[in-house]
Amino acid sequence: MGKKVVIVGGVAGGASAAARLRRLDEEAEIVLLDRGDYVSFANCGMPYYLGGVITDRQRLLVQTAESLARRFRLDVRTRHEAVRIDRDRKELEVRDLRQGRTYREPYDVLILAPGSVPVRPKIPGADGPRVFVLHNIPDMDAIADIAARRPAGRAVVIGGGLIGLEMAENLRHRGLGVELVEAAPQVLANLDREMAALVHAHLRRQGIGLHLAAKVTAVEEAGEGVKVVLEDGRTLEGDFVLLAVGVRPEVELAREAGLELGPTGAIAVDEQLRTSDPSIYAIGDAVETRSLITGLPIW
């Protein structure tokens, strides 16, 4: 009888780990838990579905729970949330979100792949009903719904990183008016200033309103839309707001279990992705690694 491996979280990290483990060990019992309905999807394609570049939503669903279970002989449980790790007993407390029950799942090896969570800045109105993030398939569907109901509308994108630019580009491609707000003097902070200037010019040629060195102080409801208030007193109006100001590692489960966190706030792991508990590994966006160049912790 092989070991029992329980994986918390699907998508890139968890689903890939489950598939690789099965190829390495035909006898292992592998349980994959995910609190959502989608265990394996192409998250990089979501902006392009929203822009109409990808027209078939099914193309984003790399594997379903059923196909993963069938192909790799996995025990895949969607809508199951890990709520506590009992390291002494090597058990996981799991909440079945469909049936509303809680049970305990033993493990020999536990793999944490909880990913990251979008940052919502602490400004008034940032959690309003017309303020969206793009993190998973339900987020994408919610944005697609409001964009479809307002085909000639306007969107305000807050954040000039990669996701912000992809969303600005695709919402514009869809036909919406787009205002892009970035707190720094340029988009894509890692670019040289001269390179960023080329990106700025391109955005403006596409008809995207670009607001640099602009800090958002509030998001207010305005009739059936929203009003974004900037620090200098200007306001930008739209039908909805897309927040793209970054993510942070999701470490609550690890922290409550007493696993070591690194100086970046992510889960500390060694070169084998083992946590401070030798029976628990962590992968993906939740972990801290070390730079091959500087040797310093990075996330």
Low-confidence parts = none
- Report strand %: 25-35%
Spatial strand sequence of the major β-sheet: 3-2-1-7-19
Q: Radius of gyration, Cα only, in angstroms?
A: 21 Å
> What's the helical proportion of residues?
10-25%
Secondary-structure content class: alpha/beta
- How many individual β-strands? 21
Average residue-wise pLDDT = 96
Give the overall form: globular
Taken in chain order, the helices and strands follow as EHEHHEEEEEEEHEHEHEEEEEEHEEEE
Oligomeric category: single chain
Characterize the biggest β-sheet.
5 strands, parallel
Distance between the termini: 37 Å
How many helical stretches? 7
Q: Which key terms come to mind for this protein?
A:
7 helices, alpha/beta, five-stranded parallel β-sheet, globular, 299 residues
Please tell me about this protein's structure.
With 299 residues, this protein is α/β, with parallel strands linked by helices. It has 7 helices and 21 strands. Strands 3-2-1-7-19 form a 5-stranded parallel β-sheet, covered by helices on one side. It has a 5-stranded parallel β-sheet with strand order 9-16-10-11-12, covered by helices on one side. The chain has a 3-stranded antiparallel β-sheet with strand order 4-5-6. The two termini are 37 Å apart. The model has no long low-confidence stretch (mean pLDDT 96).
Q: How are the SSEs placed, and which strands pair?
A:
Blueprint: E1 4-8, H1 11-24, E2 29-34, H2 46-50, H3 65-72, E3 75-78, E4 80-86, E5 91-96, E6 101-106, E7 109-112, E8 116-118, E9 131-132, H4 137-149, E10 154-158, H5 162-174, E11 177-181, H6 193-205, E12 209-211, E13 216-222, E14 225-230, E15 235-238, E16 240-243, E17 247-249, H7 252-256, E18 267-268, E19 280-282, E20 287-290, E21 297-298
Parallel strand pairs: 1-2, 1-7, 2-3, 7-19, 9-16, 10-11, 10-16, 11-12, 18-20
Antiparallel strand pairs: 4-5, 5-6, 8-17, 13-14, 14-15, 20-21
